Write a sequence for this structure.
């Protein structure tokens, strides 16, 4: 059954029997329990209100660092039950709200460890970033969701990922690299959430994709530069022996000619659809 031998990573919601704890944020938006259940069932999972031997995945709806202090509350008892089940040899996966959001996008999520403290309290412990992996499984183009413009302005880092233009650019990049025999992959569990990654020999490329349709070009490019530099810094710190190359992928050639020289000075490869120069 799913989750019995997860090896530290939950690959999919499909086949799991899930129960939820507390309040869950899906992509940063508070989502009621009934809607979470509907989303899980759309991914071929079953859901239950209470913990039982059938449960293979618990979605923890509070901050991963928060200590559960009230053992009488339902979300606390579910963590205690999950920990007990693990100790009895029946592994139950636990993911936080961010992990659940990743799984809804068909991306892998780290299975959290559980740690007991005084009084029988149980708290989830975030998985440490992997020390030997940067790239995860094969990348798949997602179907963009529908959100209001007001919702999209709340978090610029999620704006692109909700647009058709963004996913079309990801798909075009995938086709371009696949035609050259390069497999495009997602990020490894625990690694920064870059949009696409690939390798050539010992060189690893991590890309952030930005659409320009319906958005200010300078805002999108500045955001992309900041994100991909942050990802590269985190990965170079975690993997000092890796040759990492940050790449900013745009939906189309930018109007402003200065962006190419700016990216080059920052050590970023700037490219765009449909031809993807320098990639």
């Amino acid at each position: 059954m799913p989750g019995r031998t997860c090896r530290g990573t939950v690959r999919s919601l499909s086949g799991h029997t899930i129960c939820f704890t507390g309040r869950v944020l899906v992509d940063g938006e508070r989502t009621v329990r009934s809607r979470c259940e509907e989303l899980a069932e759309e991914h071929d999972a079953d859901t239950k209100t209470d913990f039982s031997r059938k449960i293979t995945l618990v979605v923890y709806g509070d901050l991963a660092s928060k200590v559960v202090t009230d053992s009488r509350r339902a979300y606390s008892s579910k963590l205690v039950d999950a920990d007990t089940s693990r100790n009895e040899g029946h592994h139950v996966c636990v993911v936080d709200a961010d992990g659940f959001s990743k799984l809804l996008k068909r991306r892998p999520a780290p299975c959290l460890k559980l740690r007991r403290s005084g009084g029988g309290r149980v708290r989830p412990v975030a998985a440490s970033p992997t020390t030997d992996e940067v790239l995860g499984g094969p990348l798949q183009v997602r179907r963009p969701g529908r959100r209001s413009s007001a919702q999209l302005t709340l978090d610029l880092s999620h704006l692109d990922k909700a647009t058709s233009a963004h996913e079309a650019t990801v798909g075009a990049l995938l086709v371009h690299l696949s035609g050259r025999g390069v497999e495009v992959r997602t990020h490894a569990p625990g690694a920064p959430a870059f949009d696409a990654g690939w390798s050539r020999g010992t060189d690893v490329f991590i890309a952030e994709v930005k659409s320009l349709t319906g958005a200010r070009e300078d805002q999108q490019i500045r955001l992309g530069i900041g994100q991909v530099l942050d990802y590269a810094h985190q990965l170079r710190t975690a993997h000092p022996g890796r040759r990492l190359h940050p790449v900013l992928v745009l939906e189309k050639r930018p109007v402003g000619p200065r962006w190419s020289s700016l990216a080059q000075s920052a050590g970023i490869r700037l490219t765009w659809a449909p031809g993807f120069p320098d990639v």
In short: The chain has two domains: 9-125, 135-272. DSSP finds eight helices and 16 strands in the chain. The helical segments are 33-42, 74-87, 97-104, 149-152, 156-159, 164-178, 217-238, 258-265. The longest strand covers residues 203-210.
